[in-house]
Specification:
single chain; alpha/beta; Aspartate Aminotransferase, domain 1; Aspartate Aminotransferase, domain 2; seven-stranded mixed sheet; three-stranded antiparallel sheet; 12 helices; about 15% strand; globular
Length: about 375
Amino acid sequence: MQKQDQERLDGYMAQVKERSHHFIGYPVARDFDYSELYHLLQYPLNNLGDPLIESTYDLNSRSIEREVVQFFSELFKAPKDNAWGYVTNGGSEGNLYALYVARELYPTGMVYYSEATHYSVQKNISLLNMPSIVIRTNEKGEMDYDDLKDAIHLHRHQPAIVIANIGTTMTEAKDDLEKIRDTLKKSAIRRYYIHCDAALAGAYLALLDLHPRFSFAEGADSVAISGHKFIGSPIPCGVVIVKKNYKDRIGLSIPYIGTLDTTITGSRNGHSPLFLWYALKKLGVDGLKKRATDAMEVAAYAEKKLNELGLKAWRNANAITVVFSQPKKEICVKWQLASEGGLSHIICMPGVSKKLIDEFLEDLIP
């Protein structure tokens, strides 16, 4: 490598280190250590095709991926004999996959999602050419169930495909599956599909068994989470869990790879399942629960301190996202704060400590 290229690389690495320290506005954990796995980066691990079916491409991590899927299938109480899933590139792909399955199940279905839903859902709906209706939210970001009822009533002749948010992007609001199902029942809708976009809050809500519950036992047909958020990963990733009989509608046999094509992408990252598997095994359920309660504790601390500064901070129930009045621009830029409508938030993911919160607060003091 030439001298100027080495200098460019060194400068970039220094920049990443500095920006990583001032990173509290987005839901990404930073406290992981996967150094034990680094030697696997020399291998082109590719999990192309169905994770349950071996392929002639044998340089993969499918067996590891299956264990990750099994963990989350059990966590989200998926039917033991009717559960399937795979490790995705992130929550957006999980949402796309769920909508794809729902469309194949109900080709004439109408999609309902709230105005606080992640931007990937609207994009995915456009990609799949599905009709949709946006539902209002309350001031905290939760779906307005009366508006959902009115919208469904106008389209009672169509199956309903409902996207439930389990932690919205800006306020970490959670939609209530019980209220959604009650709305569907009162509208006499018998053909419906409920997908839970649990990218942000799904893992820790389920681990701590907090309300609102959103598992398959509560009526979910699919659940998608992000792996790089609560668990942490150097590569964006996620997991989607669906009912296997729904997935079976879209599988195609591909002789070239010797397996079924049942996922969104052809080639799939074989390293991401290793990171997730390693974290799950190293931390264990008790370690993951402590990770969640520690994050909640830091969020409560941040909310209290921000209110003491007069910034009108608040959190939704069981949330690690703290919303407050948007500070001046240079603070938002330095700390990479997501802001919208005069509000900003910090997300107390694992890796965000009380000490880091104190450092941020020092910048807020005039």
